[in-house]
Model the fold of this input.
Amino acid sequence: QLQLAESGGGLVQPGGSLRLSCRVSGSTLDYYSIGWFRQAPGKEREAVLCSNLIGGSRNYADSVKGRFTIRRDNAENTVSLEMDSLKPEDTAIYYCAAIKEYYCSRYAEGYEAWGQGTQVTVSS
Done:
């Protein structure tokens, strides 16, 4: 059974950096595109970045362009989200999710497995 587990969240000051990790178990990363989503209090879940199974990535959130980077390591079965120049509006629970497609989707409904989420708080 496919399982995902996020780690690396925490409290950081504005302008700081965090690196989130999503570890896949129960299957191999070779079969999945992996997306990172986030949900802020009182807001809907939104797609942030995604790593395509076939290669490359997609950025779905203009607000993180140039600040967030997604990296995939098939050998380690992990996908990381590197976040720089963090802003208070980046505060949210961050989730990774797997979809068995060559390409990512920005729609949460298409993903078959989700991690439990990790809290990121950006505050001074």
Notes: The chain has no helices and eleven strands. The radius of gyration is 13 Å.
